[in-house]
Specification:
Blueprint: H1 10-28, H2 39-56, H3 68-91, H4 94-106, E1 112-114, E2 121-123, H5 124-139, H6 142-156, H7 166-207, H8 214-256
Antiparallel strand pairs: 1-2
Helix pairs in contact: 1-2, 1-3, 3-7, 3-8, 4-5, 4-7, 4-8, 5-8, 6-8, 7-8
Length: 257
């Protein structure tokens, strides 16, 4: 009997309690938190990993379901899971920042469609970058690293003592600045070339005001942007791997300190 006459099997209650942290991480993390992923698949994965955690760690859930200490423990578990997923989701915002900078300079900022990750409208170039970052994330087994960190988090942050300290919360906040830095560095090769092109077009418009440079400048920006993307994409792919590595390292620092 677990509070107010509610009868639950102890093993089932322990599994539900463990699934709170894992489910919160999957809700906030990329790939797992995509709206295109069915809820039943997400819940099944959460339950399967919860069974793995119960087999590896002796988790003791709160004795009563309807108690203040139980609600506080569940909030702490959800906070840890959301923090781990939020760090990865923050890193995945870097391609969107880069696409805004490049797309605005190329003149294709208006091209947008529904993003399958979050179900909202986003730039088409940003979706292309996000898909490439997702594929690189999966290719280096980032999803397995996330699951491994979730299992290890029950050693470093056991239930009942899982409140994140001020230093770890500050590290999460400062990692948000890395998304802007990574987006700027990701857009730097193409963005700098387009900036130089815009400067040349601006100088020509001042030197020859009678010329209709709008009919030349926009196609030139689009053509130069496409060619620059094709040339710079190998280097951009390498830096996307750095973004994935930094985000996974940040998750490891959050969990293990």
């Amino acid at each position: 009997m677990l509070g107010f006459g509610l009868a639950i099997e102890p093993q089932l209650w322990a599994l539900i309690f463990v699934m709170v942290r894992i489910g919160a991480a999957f809700m906030a993390a990329p790939v797992f938190g995509a709206v295109s992923l069915p809820v039943i698949v997400r819940v099944s994965l959460t339950g399967a990993i919860g069974l793995l955690v119960l087999a590896a760690h002796p988790i003791v859930p709160p004795p009563s379901v309807f108690a203040v200490t139980t609600f506080v423990s569940i909030a702490a578990e959800a906070l840890v899971g959301f923090a781990m997923g939020f760090i990865l989701q923050t890193a995945f915002a870097a391609p969107l920042i880069a696409s805004e900078l490049i797309g605005g300079s190329m003149g294709i900022g208006f091209a947008s469609s529904i993003d399958p990750q979050n179900g909202r409208s986003s730039p088409a170039l940003g979706q292309f970058f996000s898909i490439m970052l997702t594929l690189l994330f999966l290719s280096v087994d980032g999803h397995l690293v996330l699951v491994d960190m979730l299992v290890k988090s029950y050693d470093a942050l056991p239930p009942g003592a899982a409140w994140l300290g001020t230093e770890r919360l500050k590290a999460i906040a400062f990692f948000g600045g890395y998304a802007f830095l990574a987006g700027l560095l990701l857009a730097l090769p193409v963005g700098f070339l387009l900036l130089c092109l815009n400067i040349v077009v601006g100088m020509m418009s001042r030197a020859a005001p009678a010329l209709n440079l709008f009919s030349v400048g926009l196609p030139a920006s689009l053509a130069v942007g496409v060619i620059a993307l094709a040339i710079a994409f190998p280097a951009m792919g390498d830096y996307m791997l750095v973004i994935v590595s930094e985000s996974l390292s940040a998750v490891q620092t959050l969990v293990l300190g």
